[in-house]
Structure formats: C-alpha cells, structure tokens
Specification:
- This protein has 221 residues and is α/β, with parallel strands linked by helices.
- It contains 7 helices and 8 strands; from the N terminus they run αββββαβααβααββα.
- The protein has one domain: Glutaredoxin (3-Layer(aba) Sandwich).
- It is 33% helix and 15% strand.
- Strand 2 and strand 3 form a beta hairpin.
- Bound molecules: 2-acetamido-2-deoxy-beta-D-glucopyranose (3 copies).
- It comes from Haliotis diversicolor supertexta.
Length: 221
C-alpha cells in the first residue's frame, strides 16, 4: 500500500514537473469549498449596456480570457475569433473576453467605446466575435470575484514573477510581461478544467475544447 501510494505521489510530481517545464498549461482541481458557481456571475458588457448573465453559459464550454489592447499578444484576438467561427452555430462553445482594469490605469478616460477603438486601431480589420465584458481587476485587492473563483481552481502557470509590484504599473514593463492573455477553460459542468499561459495560442486549446465537448480523445503532449 505504502509503495503504491508513493508511486502515485511520484507520478503526480512528475506530471507537475513536466507541466512546469512547459510552463503553458495547468490542470485544475475542484476546490473543496466553493461559495458560488460559474453560473452565478453577471458582468456588464464592454459598453456597460447589457448584462452578460453567466447562467446562459450552462452546458457550454467557455474559454475565459483577460484581454488587453496594446500588447504583443493582441494578435490572439484573431485566434479567438477563429475559435468562435469554428464553433459558430454549434452553441456549445464560446469565448468570453475580459478587458482588465489595469488597462484603465494607463488610459484614465477609457470606456467601452475607447476599448473598441483601441482594438480597431491595433487590429484595423478585426471585430471581436465574442462577448467582451466591462473592465475588471484580475489580481489584488479589487479583483473581480470571478477571478478569485477561477484562480481557486488552479495555480498560475507562470514560473517567475517580477519581485517589485511597482513594475506592474510602468508602461514598458506591462506590455512585455504582465498584460497577457492568460486563459481558463471552463467545462460544460461549470468547473474550471485548464489554465493556460498567455503564449498558448487559441488554436492549441482546440484539443481540450474537443475533449470537453466529448468529441474525441485529446492529443497528448
Ligand atoms: C454573450 O453573452 C450572452 C449571455 O448574457 C449569451 O447569451 C450570448 O450567447 C453570448 N454571445 C456570444 C457571441 O458569445
Ligand atoms: C468614452 O470616453 C471618451 C473619452 O473620455 C468620451 O469622449 C466618450 O464620450 C465616452 N463615451 C461614453 C459612451 O461614455
Ligand atoms: C490576466 O490575468 C492574470 C491572472 O489570471 C494576471 O496575472 C494578468 O496580469 C492578467 N492580464 C491582464 C492583461 O489583465
């Protein structure tokens, strides 16, 4: 028994170590205590005009991405759109983009109109095909409860942190390091299944989406 236990522990460690090396994807666990479910959340849309009601996402696989406009990963808007197109009409997968509030601190006058203008400026031919929420905080004291919820399921895939929090607010540093497209994939049961680092391209998440939709066995590795 003890041998089997330690073997299991060894395997678990190995898996974690491999994930650490790749630094791209974390498999989430179900927290023992959850105060709310994914379907309890409601957030205004980017224009603050209508409420995005997460109870509409029941039985769907949802990719939650915190997006930002002025960043090297902004090209991922294209990949996110492509996913929406791929699954268009099937109604069982969707992307939800959450512009982060930290962006607001760089653009004090910003609102939904400005966010969308920013996206147009950086990606002139692009209109997001997915819902964008109003800006939220994803970290720190004022983080949105949705992010507390998502993060309670899985640890960060990031292996190194900037030591000084002041760097966070210096424009050049933000663009390079912190303003990223981290992703959470939520299953049709409302549980967070995977967390991906910003460099993971939307298309690379397809096997996991397919697996969660029960289409076919995911590609390993
Ligand atoms: C946007 O969110 C609403 C939930 O309020 C949902 O009904 C709708 O299908 C979503 N649209 C897209 C394109 O994901
Ligand atoms: C958004 O902000 C800009 C600049 O501060 C302002 O001109 C515009 O009227 C605002 N739009 C809305 C819908 O609040
Ligand atoms: C995205 O969310 C992660 C936490 O999930 C955070 O570390 C990162 O700073 C956020 N980036 C943006 C642009 O909001």
């Amino acid at each position: 028994m003890a041998g089997a236990t330690s073997l299991t522990a060894g395997l678990a460690t190995l898996v974690i170590a491999l994930c650490g090396v790749r630094g791209q994807k974390a498999t989430c666990h179900t927290p023992t205590k959850t105060t709310n479910t994914f379907y309890d959340f409601k957030i205004n849309d980017v224009f603050d005009e209508k409420l995005i009601d997460f109870s509409d996402f029941r039985n769907k696989v949802v990719l939650v991405v915190n997006v930002t406009t002025y960043h090297g990963h902004t090209h991922q808007y294209n990949g996110l759109n492509a996913l929406m197109t791929d699954y268009a009409g099937q109604r069982d997968f969707l992307v939800l983009g959450l512009p982060c509030n930290q962006f607001l601190k760089q653009e004090p006058g910003a609102n939904g109109t400005e966010t969308m203008n920013g996206v147009k400026y950086v990606r002139p031919r692009l209109t997001p095909l997915f819902n964008l929420t109003q800006r939220i905080d994803v970290n720190g004291q004022y983080q949105h409860p949705l992010y507390r919820f998502l993060k309670s399921y899985c640890k960060s895939v990031r292996t190194e942190y900037r030591p000084s929090s002041t760097l966070f607010y210096q424009p050049k540093e933000i663009g390079d390091v912190y303003w990223n497209f981290e992703k959470f994939l939520v299953g049709a049961d409302g549980h967070v299944k995977f967390r991906y680092s910003p460099s993971v391209q939307p298309i690379d998440i397809r096997p996991d989406i397919e697996a969660l939709l029960g289409r076919h066995v995911p590609v390993v590795g």
